[in-house]
Amino acid sequence: RSHAVFRAGLRSFLEKYGDCKIVGETNNGEDLVEIVRSLAPDVVVTDIDMPRKSGIDAATDICKWNPASRILILSVHASQQHIINMVDAGALGYILKSSDAEEIVEAIRTLAHHKPYFCKVATEKLTEIISRQLKVGTKEPIHLSAREKEIIVLICAEYTSKAIAHTLHLSKRTVEGHRTRIMDKIGAKSVAGIITYAIENGIYSREFAS
């Protein structure tokens, strides 16, 4: 019942904005995947806790069948594990249900423009994760080539290796080699690590692609 009330409130709020059109709604993960496959929305706003299929599994399926649909997680959970699980599943944004309604709209608009959006709490959690993943035992600064930075920006913008290869006129194998070296250099173990490193080091920002 609480989920239904929250959805109704969110729907009512979003309908006030002319650039936010709601094309579908459901209360379980299985139907969510089917709705996305059928309607192919620009942005998918979903919770983690859902019956019949979790948000993690739903996000994985959506990224497989509808990679153009950007996923925004709207959840009560603020743990590092929940955040990293959803980002690894393909979510491009993470925001808490306790956030102001205006921030939820901002997050949706940001994802609609192919840019990631993480609320302050999620960003702090990701920063802690990447800090632990960074290599220790060396004081030498991490050097990234111009090409590597280009690829990082495109990864943050949710480009696949194939799309990056097409954009930069490289082979897919070359791009995947760059991706591996980038992750090795910065000590990242996932896309979440790359995104966090890029934001923290000024390589990518929410305004970068505007």
Uncertain parts: 135-139
- Strand sequence of the main sheet, in spatial order? 1-2-3-4
SS elements, strand count? 4
Amino- and carboxy-terminal Cα gap: 39 Å
Order of helices and strands: HHEHEHEHEHHHHH
**How many alpha or pi helices?**
10
Share of residues in strands: 5-15%
Give the topology, please.
Elements (H helix, E strand, L loop, with lengths): L1 H13 L14 H11 L3 E4 L8 H11 L4 E6 L4 H10 L3 E4 L4 H12 L4 E2 L1 H14 L12 H11 L4 H8 L3 H15 L4 H10 L10
Parallel strand pairs: 1-2, 2-3, 3-4
Helix pairs in contact: 2-3, 6-10, 7-10, 8-9
Descriptive notes:
By secondary structure, the protein is α/β, with parallel strands linked by helices. The chain is built from 10 helices and 4 strands, in the order H-H-E-H-E-H-E-H-E-H-H-H-H-H. It has a 4-stranded parallel sheet with strand order 1-2-3-4. Helix 4 links the parallel strand 2 (70-75) and strand 3 (93-96). The chain is globular. The protein starts with a helix and ends in a 10-residue tail after the last helix.
